[in-house]
Every structure is written in structure tokens, then in C-alpha cells.
Amino acid sequence: MSEMRLVVAGAAGRMGRMLVQAIHETPGACLCGALERPGSIALGQDAGLLAGAGKMNVAITDDPLAALVAADGVLDFTSPAATLELAALAAQARIVHVIGTTGLQPADIEKIDAASRHAVIVRSGNMSLGVNLLAGLVRKVAQTLGEDFDIEIVEMHHRMKVDAPSGTALLLGEAAAQGRNIDLASRSDKVRDGHTGARKPGDIGFASLRGGTVVGDHQVIFAGAGERIELAHRAEDRGIFARGAVKAALWGHGRKPGHYAMADVLGLNDI
Questions:
Q1: Does residue 124 contact residue 76 with C-beta atoms inside 8 Å?
Q2: Is 247 a catalytic residue?
Q3: From 170's CA, which of 43, 136, 183, 253 has a CA 20 to 30 Å away?
Q4: Nearest residue to 205 via CA among 163, 172, 238
Q5: Which of these, 163, 271, 141, lies nearest to 216 by C-alpha position?
Q6: Which residues contact 196 (CB under 8 A, 6 or more apart)?
Q7: Which residue among the candidates 24, 55, 140, 157 is catalytic per the annotation?
Q8: pLDDT by residue, tens only, the chain of 271 residues
Q9: Inter-axis angle of helices 239-252 and 129-144, to 10 degrees?
Q10: Which residue, among 50, 46, 58, 45, has the nearest Cα to 6 in the 3D structure?
Q11: What is the largest CA-CA distance in the chain?
Q12: pTM as predicted
């Protein structure tokens, strides 16, 4: 079987370089394209050399259409606007689109849903095995415990992160909401300041911390009367996200179009 040809979007960025390295290290995958925004100083550079993976003879370009025509899939940890553009192109090309972009709004998700009618889309706020296993456990605990237990999600990331709560925190919040069969959007509490009054029973709370070089810490607290259950995950290496994204692309290759999650890739939906 031939190798899966993959394009990395945002190839000159920190995550993009890790994706290039992960492709280089994964049997069955090869880099066939590398994208950056117009005007980037990385345009024309060899993506492999820039990533520290050795020369790959893949020059970084700002032409996504040309790159995707020759690809089987695209790995995308960019921005919401760039992701929507890539989703439309991936749908046209009928290829796999792995989305790790955070900060997507409901209207963005609707457009991604539309693109998934023609492309295999695997989207997750976190591509790591550990976090997705944690999400499965959170869903099960939330389903088991009643609203006598308050749910709080605490996350911390490096000082440069621009969105809050993190995509991973929202993923965990969605898992908790699914466990309780409630709508996260209408039952979440993301901002507390001043005289807020008592906590609303059944709401899912979020707290976002930023500082230093923290890769990603997430804690889900189930607080009841006289007892607490705390589930946590700490990411120590961004490489776990890159390796998960490549795994997702290989899993999606040859599947029917649809909007999938990492839980599908890892077989965790039965937890």
C-alpha cells in the first residue's frame, strides 16, 4: 500500500514543525506539501530542514489549492479563518482534513459540518490519547453522579495562548454535558467577577489560567457535599498532539465522508 500523502498547514510554526517531524517518523505517511500564510519569511524553505527532520524536498508555499490537489490529507492547527478555507478546499478535493484548530465558533462548526458531507473531517480540541481517554471518563462520571456534584474545569496554558477556555477544556465540558444529557452552551459558566450570587445547580464551570511555558494542564473537579473527585491530565510534550493528528489522518484515509472526533479514531465511544 502506498504512503498517505499529507500537507501541513502552518508548517513554519511551532506546531507545524512538530507535525512535519511526526509525519517523517510515522510509517505509512509522507509529507507532500507545506503551507504558510502569504508574506511569511518561511516561503520557499524546505519544510523538513526547517522542522529539523532533514531535507524532504518539500518547499513551503502559500498556495493551498496547488498543495491539496496532490494530497490525500491535510493537518491543520491554524486559525479559524484559515481552517474554514481549508475545509472548503478539502471538500472539493475529497481528502482527509484533520483539524486541531481551537477558537472555532458555532457558525464555523456549521461550515465544517457542511464540508464533511464531501470530506473526512477529524476534529478535536486535543489530539492526545490521554486527553480523549480523560474525556471518556468525565462523560461516565458525569452520567453516574447527579447534580448534587458541581463540575468545575480548570485549565492552564502558556502565556502566549490567545483563546480561553482552551479547546481541550471545552472538549471536556462537552463530555460532561453529554454525560448529563444537557446543552453545554446554555449550562456553562465561563466568567465570574464581582458579586455573582450562588452557583447555579447543574452548571459546568470553567477557569482559565495563563503563564510561563505550560504546554497544557487540565483538571475536572466533581465537588459534592463532603467529597471531591478530581480527574487530571498534564501534557509535557506537544509531540503528543502531532502524533495523534497523524494517527487520525491515517485512520480517516479511505473512510466515508463525515465529521469525526478523536474518540472515533481511538475507539473510546463505548467508555
A1: no
A2: no
A3: 253
A4: 172
A5: 163
A6: none
A7: 157
A8: 589 999 999 999 999 999 999 999 999 999 999 999 999 999 999 999 999 999 999 999 999 999 999 999 999 999 999 999 999 999 999 999 999 998 899 999 999 999 999 999 999 988 988 999 999 999 999 999 988 999 999 999 999 998 899 989 999 999 999 999 999 999 999 988 888 888 999 999 999 999 999 999 999 999 999 999 999 999 998 889 999 999 999 999 999 999 999 989 988 776 6
A9: 80
A10: 58
A11: 62
A12: 0.82
The CA distance from 49 to 6, in Å, is 17
